[in-house]
Each structure stands twice: as C-alpha cells, then as structure tokens.
Design goal:
With 819 residues, this protein is an alpha/beta fold. It is 50% helix and 12% strand. The chain has an eight-stranded mixed β-sheet with strand order 15-14-13-16-19-18-20-17, with helices on both faces. Helix 18 links the parallel strand 14 and strand 15. Helix 6 crosses helix 25, helix 8 runs parallel beside helix 14 and helix 23 packs parallel to helix 24. The chain is elongated.
C-alpha cells in the first residue's frame, strides 16, 4: 500500500530546494532550441547530442521513401498527434485555398473496397468448401434406409423386366433377348479401375453402360469422354449417390439436374437412363423406391434395374462373381457390376473371364439401350448446358484442389504454431536462468565496478494527455532510485490542458521541466527531449503510463553492461477489469513478454515499447535519433539500434502500468497502427537479412519470425479456422476435435507458465477460450487490413486513442500483480 500511495503523491513545493540540491545545477537550455524547425529536427539533435549517421542509413532511408512514397509527418506513439505542418509552414498557420485543394486531391485515405473483396473471398471460400463437401457425398450425405414393411412396388414392376418406363403412369418393362447381355457398371468413373475395365471391353470388342455418379464424372471428365468414344453408354446414378427413396422431390431433381450438367460439361451429352442407388432386381423394389422411380420418370428418365446382381462390391472372389453373372440356359440378362467404391481387382479379372467364356458360347455383350432395342440414351446437350457444365466441372475441380491446399496449409500452420508454443516457454526458461545468475552477480556489484548508479533523464512526450499526465509524472518522481533524475515533459502542441498541468507540475516539483514546442509528432517530441536532456541514460515514457517505485532502478540496471544500448521494460495493463482489458492483459503477458524473453536470448529484440524503455545516449547517437518514417517509431528505433551492433535486452522486473484501449473500436485503431508500423519497419530494415555481423544475425533471426508469425500466419489463420470448422462437420470430426483440444491444452499450459513467470494470478485464464473465438479473429483482421494498406500504398491516418483516466480514479493499480 505504501508503494501505491506514493504514486498519487510527490514532492511538494517546500521540497523543491532539496531536490534541486540533489540534482545539481540545471544546465542552461540550448539557445538554438527555441528556433528548432517544426518538421525535421535531425540536424539540431545531432549537433546538440553528437549524433552521427552512417551514410548507408541515408541511402536506406531514400530507398525506403522510394518504395513507400512520401514520409508520414504525423507519426507518433500512443498519444495521437495530428498532422505535422509542411516544410516552411508555421504550426498555427492555415494553408491557403490552393494548397488545401491540392492536399485534398493528393490525400489517400484508408482502403475500404478491400473489405468487399475480403467478404467475397470468404463467401467464395465457404462456397468452395461446401461444393467440395457436397460433391464427395459428405455435406448432405444420404445413407441407405431399410424399407422392410413399407410395401412393395406394383406387380407389373416387381414381376416385369429390369428396364422400366413409367412416363405415362402405366409401368412398362422390357427384358434382354436370349444370349444378349447388357453389362452395367455403377458408381464410377474411377481413375484407377474404370480405365482397366474399358481396356478389357475394348480387347474383347464388347460394350457396356456406365451409370456414373455426377460428382465423379465432374472429377474425371476424360474417362467419361473415352467411354463414349469407344462405343459405350452413359446413365445417371445421381450426383452424390443419394438414397432417392428417402429424399424429397426437390433433392431428387437437384441431384439429377447436377448430373446432367456434369455430363454436358464432360462429354457434351445428356442421358435418358437412370439407375437409382441401392436398387437391385425388380422384385426387390419397395414402395418408397417405386415412388422415387416415378419422380425420376416425371423428369423423363427410363429406370434401369438388373436381372443379376453380382454383389462384386463384397469381393467374394473371381469365381463367385463369374458364377453370379452367368445367365441360365442361354437367357439374356442385365448384369450389375461396379467400377468404383473400393478395390475392384476381382471385378476386372471376373469381367475378363466372363467375356472369354460367354463369347465362346455365342453371347453378345452390348449396351443397355441396344440390348433392349431402345433409342440411344445419350443425346447431345445444348451449348448453354455445355457451358454451365464446364463451369460446374471447373468449380468442382477448384474446390477439390482448395480442400487439398487447405489441408496442407492447416498442417503447416499447426506445426509452426505448435513449434512456437513449445519454443517460447523453452526460451523463457533459458531467460529466467540467465536472469537469476545475473541477479546473483548484481548483489555483489549493484551498479558496475564503481557501484555508482548513473543519473537518469526521463522524457515524457505529451499530446492531449491532461487525463493521466499528472499521475505519470508523480509516479516518476516518487521513485526510490538513489541517483539524480530529471523528468522532461515535452508538450507537443496540445490543444487541451496538458501544458497547464505540465506547468503546475514544474512549479511543484524541482526535478520536473516542461518544454513546449509546436506540434511535430511523437518522434520529434522525443528528439526534442533528448536534445534537452542533461544525462546520458535516457528513459522514454508514454504520457499514460505509471511507474512503480523500483521501476527506474530496475530498468537502467542492465545498462551497466557496456554492450547494452537499450532495455525493454515489462508493460502491464492497468485497466484489466473488463473483458477487453483482460484479453489485452493475457496478450501482454503471454504474447509480448514471452516473445521478448525469446528475443533477448536470441539477441534480436525488435521493439522496446514506447511505454517503458531505457536507452544509452551513445546508442541513440549511432542511429541518428528517432525517425519519422514509420508509424511504429519504437520498433523502427529498436531495429536500428540492433543493426548498429548494440544489444537490446528485456528486464522483467521493470514494471510499467499503462492504460489499454477500453473499446473494440479503440483497440482496432491502436493495433492497426502498431501492425502497419511494424510492417513499415520490417520493410525499412529488410537489408539486415543479407548483411553480416550483428546486423545480419538480427535480420535473419528476427525478420523471418515476424514475417511468419505476425504477418503470414495471422493472414492465413481465418482460412485455417474456416477449414477447421469445415473439417469438424465434413471430414473426420474426431481428428479435428482432438487436434483442437491438444492445441488448446498446449496453449493453456504456455499461458500458465507465462503468468507464473510474471507473478500473475491464473484466474484470468477463464477468458482465454472466448479470446480465441473473438479477440484472436479481430487481431487477424487487423493484420489483413494493415497488409492491404501497405500493398496498396495507402497512407494511414493517425488514430487518436481516447483516454478514460484510469490513473486519475483513486487507486488505479491492482493490489498485487495478477488481479
């Protein structure tokens, strides 16, 4: 409680002299500082603090500008700076009518039309998956029903021939003449077995009727075309092998129409023949099946049954298939065989044996229509039907390939995500062991060889931060850090009471200074603070962040190592009471901080957050200060420091409490800017991939990781999620559910470990399942929006994050970490 009370207090005016004595004489401000140009302060900052920029950096910056277009002048951190005046224009001066008109003409807004394209793409994806599922008999699949006790077909059908015409309501059936066999094959075409059967038929000079499943015909149109070219006949076996007796009339019509369209696209024909799936001999026809046959007759079909069902699908053996297919005493027959649906080796061998044996006895093997002396069942399709059928075939082929690609993508994404889930805790464990060894070493030498902590300059850029600025500054001066500190509030042209509050704090607290400047964006404000800072250890803090008493000491301690140029602190979400706050709390602890531990171990830290970071002045000098070329100035700066050869480390004990967005709209705006700025920084520093030394190691370790896990996978994740849902209902649901449960368990274990490392309570984990459903999808859309914005080259407008005054409402911090 004592620590929390200190955040609300601070030195009073009567202690001003004591603080001034501790800090020492205040260095006079640079006389040139009041005349700093509004847009670019790089030259002044270099002159004041001795910054030097390698000429190669200028070339890289120019190359970046060539790719990304004009530099954004209102880039800033979490405080929402408005656009910066152009070169030569005063901050309080309004542009003339002509300039304003030109600006409106040149201004490019955020892209909007891509959301329509994204919606169309999602609908196309879902449509393709549904088509693939339906075509392969999975979506809407119909199984065979038992019709015992439901009655039988009329006697004229049950006692008649295997080919039935019901078109005029009166059943008429015919039989095959003597020594004439109509070979029929169901369930094809199959890419393996149907060509073998066609080879046997051609070798014996025989022909057959193939009752094809429409979806299979669409998958293998070349086989259908070959069968027709070799004198065979095609009949319909529905599109997905449905049980017509248990299907509604509209479903029957739909299946038959799709099959006709598939045949039109595959071979340019329609057919008049149909064999209902699960049907057999006439006397086995039930009353429901007869009603289905009449529905098919109303659509103009002749129904084909069979005289002898070989039941070759049971694979009883070649001899039994031949025996079941051989007519008695020279009679004619319609034989039922199958060319798909499993291993048809026995069927192919039995067909060869049957043709050899019965041809020698004078049997003729022909199509069903020729055997019954009926008109040809295959008629030419219209041009429109051919076009429609071709589109159906192309769509089904595309959908089949889509499911295959998605399956591969699902596997790759699963493997990569699983590897990351296991790698992050492993690197975190390595980091913890390293930190513990370092802490034991620090007990003997708290602040380097001389045991003297360095003085610190804390820079707080502020634009319209009247709500939380006082709490931020009071928390900074209430530190237990033993060395002198100064707090520089850089008011960046605020339009609210921020400068008034800053002036009052300057009067009340001795080691607080207020610097006012025209609006120029957060990087320019930070550069101004750096130029006016008294000390060489600089702490950069957002105006909505509160430190604990030991934060500054813990944060700057790693700078004892001369190789370290910057230190990332541990940012905590203060307003975590609501659902959105808890989601962000989990993200900060599980995602950001576990990532930072890994980056620390691999020495490739991409970001020191703007909310809390410590820098060595020499490190800032080596990269030319903060750049205005990206929206993520903190990521840009950190990458530049890493490329300059400095180490950037993560200090878990340096806690800073920040106010996170409290609405989905505000969250979207913040993450949109973060993600877009990160992509800009990645593109700007892409040459690190091919450079040598520490810069190359940083580029080859960090940039591919960011590209895969922060850009590529989030963009593909919605597709993978849709495919997972599809697999749950269409493919093997057990595999999908087991995979999801295993992934969720691994993620929960990693989350528990991360919370434990940060000293957080585990009670927040109850929001994790809902986070996976809602919050994660929102973050995916943010990445997609950012990527589209970057690809189109659109200019991202600054999104102001509204502050709710978390740190001005009494006791803002949890009583302990984890609440």
């Amino acid at each position: 409680m004592a620590e929390r009370a200190s955040l609300d207090g601070g030195p009073r005016p009567r202690r001003r002299a004591a603080h001034a004595a501790q800090r020492g004489p205040r260095p006079p401000p640079d006389p040139e500082f009041g005349r700093l140009p509004v847009v670019d302060q790089t030259d002044t900052v270099r002159r004041l603090v001795g910054l030097h920029q390698d000429p190669r950096d200028s070339r890289r910056n120019e190359a970046h500008r060539d790719v990304t277009g004009p530099r954004r002048r209102n880039d800033s951190g979490g405080v929402g700076h408005p656009p910066v005046p152009r070169e030569g224009e005063r901050a309080d001066e309004k542009p003339g009518p002509e300039a304003d008109l030109m600006a409106r003409e040149k201004r490019r807004r955020d892209p909007r039309g891509h959301w329509i394209l994204l919606l169309l793409g999602a609908l196309t994806l879902v449509g393709g998956l549904l088509l693939a599922g339906y075509a392969h008999g999975i979506v809407g699949e119909s199984v065979q029903h038992e019709y015992t006790g439901s009655g039988s077909a009329p006697a004229a059908v049950a006692g008649g021939g295997p080919v039935v015409n019901l078109s005029d309501g009166t059943p008429k059936s015919v039989r095959a003449p003597r020594r004439t066999i109509a070979l029929t094959f169901d369930d094809g075409p199959d890419p393996r077995w149907t060509p073998q059967i066609l080879d046997v038929l051609r070798r014996h000079g025989a022909h057959a009727t193939f009752f094809v499943i429409g979806a299979h015909a669409a998958d293998h149109p070349d086989i259908v075309d070959r069968a027709l070219r070799e004198g065979n006949e095609i009949g319909s076996h529905t599109y997905t092998h449905i049980d017509m007796a248990s299907s509604s009339p509209w479903r029957i019509r739909f299946e038959l129409d799709l099959t006709q369209q598939a045949l039109a696209g595959a071979a340019g024909i329609h057919t008049r023949l149909i064999r209902m799936p699960y049907s057999s001999v006439p006397n086995g026809l039930s009353a429901p099946e007869y009603r289905a046959a009449r529905e098919a007759a109303r659509q103009g079909y002749v129904v084909a049954l069979t005289d002898q069902d070989t039941e070759d699908w049971k694979r009883p053996g070649v001899d039994k298939i031949v025996q079941a297919a051989t007519p008695r005493k020279g009679a004619g027959a319609v034989l039922m065989l199958h060319d798909s649906g499993g291993d048809r080796t026995q069927t192919v061998q039995a067909l060869d044996t049957l043709l050899t044996r019965l041809t020698a006895k004078g049997y003729r093997f022909t199509t069903l229509s020729q055997a019954m002396r009926l008109p040809s069942a295959d008629v030419p399709a219209s041009t429109l039907d051919k076009v429609t059928g071709t589109a159906l075939i192309d769509g089904q082929r595309w959908s089949s390939r889509l499911t295959g690609w998605l399956g591969v993508l699902f596997g790759i994404a699963g493997v990569l995500t699983t590897l990351r889930l296991f790698a992050l805790p492993l690197f975190a464990h390595i980091h913890v062991r390293r930190v513990r060894r370092e802490r034991r070493r620090r007990r003997t030498a708290p602040h380097g060889a001389g045991n003297v902590p360095p003085p610190v300059s804390v820079i707080v850029p502020a634009y319209n931060e009247e709500v939380g600025l006082a709490a931020t500054v009071r928390s900074l001066v209430a530190t237990d850090y033993p060395a002198p500190i100064e707090v520089l509030i850089v008011d960046d042209g605020s339009s609210d009471d921020t400068p008034v509050i800053g002036a009052r704090l300057e009067q009340e607290i001795a080691n607080v200074r207020l610097i006012r400047r025209p609006n120029g964006g957060k990087p320019a404000a930070l550069n101004t603070g750096i130029a006016n800072a008294s000390y060489d250890v600089l702490v950069l803090v957002d105006g909505d962040t509160v430190f604990q008493r030991d934060t500054i000491g813990n944060l700057v301690r790693p700078l004892d190592d001369p190789r370290v140029g910057a230190v990332s602190g541990n940012t905590k979400v203060a307003n975590r009471k609501g659902l959105i706050g808890r989601w962000q709390h989990l993200e900060y602890v599980i995602g950001f901080n576990l990532d930072r531990r890994m980056f620390d171990v691999l020495e490739c830290m991409p970001t020191v957050p703007g909310a809390i970071g410590a820098f060595r002045r020499a490190a800032l000098a080596s990269v030319g200060g903060l750049s205005t070329e990206t929206l993520a100035e903190d990521t840009d700066l950190t990458m530049a420091i890493c490329r300059a050869g400095w180490r950037v480390v993560y200090e878990e004990t340096a806690l800073a409490w920040t106010e996170a967005p409290s609405s989905l709209r505000q969250l979207w705006r913040q993450r949109y800017r973060w993600c877009y700025g990160t992509m800009q920084a990645m593109w700007k520093h892409k040459r690190a991939l091919v450079e040598r030394g520490r810069s190359g190691r940083f580029g080859r370790r960090c940039l591919p990781y960011l590209a895969i896990f922060q850009v590529a996978l989030p963009c593909l994740a919605p597709v993978v999620d849709v495919f997972a849902v599809y697999g749950m209902f269409v493919l093997n649901p057990v595999t999908v559910v087991v995979s999801w449960v295993a992934f969720a368990a691994a993620q929960a274990a990693a989350a528990m470990y991360a919370l434990r490392l940060d000293g957080e309570r585990l009670t927040t984990l109850w929001v994790m399942p809902l986070q996976q459903v809602v919050y994660r999808q929102l973050m995916y859309l943010v990445v997609i929006q950012s990527l589209v914005t970057a690809v189109l080259g659109a200019r991202l407008r600054w999104h102001v994050i509204r502050r709710t005054g978390t740190f001005s409402e009494g006791d803002p911090l949890p009583s302990r970490v984890g609440v």
